[in-house]
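Sequence, please.
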């Protein structure tokens, strides 16, 4: 159940700050330790290996890749992604021109 909860927040975690991802990983580690009664000094890697569970960052990256491949087939989402990219490129160009003018 815990894995599915974390899986639902993968998009937010991918766009979130590193501190939030670290906090999510720490929470997962605490949950695993409590569920399986691992000793306090048990290495995080060993807990994940013993339970056959990936740490969150590689898990989120894998889910995002699957999501992108699946949604690539959807024309509406493709149109929104193209629009987002063009807007992002425009914003980057504006920032670069402002930075150039200041210097």
């Amino acid at each position: 159940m815990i894995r599915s909860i974390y899986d639902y927040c993968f998009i937010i975690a991918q766009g979130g700050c590193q501190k939030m991802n670290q906090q999510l990983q720490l929470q997962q580690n605490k949950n695993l330790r409590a569920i399986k009664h691992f000793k306090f000094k048990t290495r995080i890697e060993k807990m994940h290996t013993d339970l056959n569970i990936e740490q969150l960052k590689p898990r989120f990256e894998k889910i995002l890749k699957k999501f992108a491949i699946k949604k690539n087939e959807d024309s509406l989402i493709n149109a929104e992604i193209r629009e987002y990219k063009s807007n992002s490129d425009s914003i980057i160009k504006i920032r670069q021109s402002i930075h150039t003018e200041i210097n």
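The first helix runs from residue 2 to 8.
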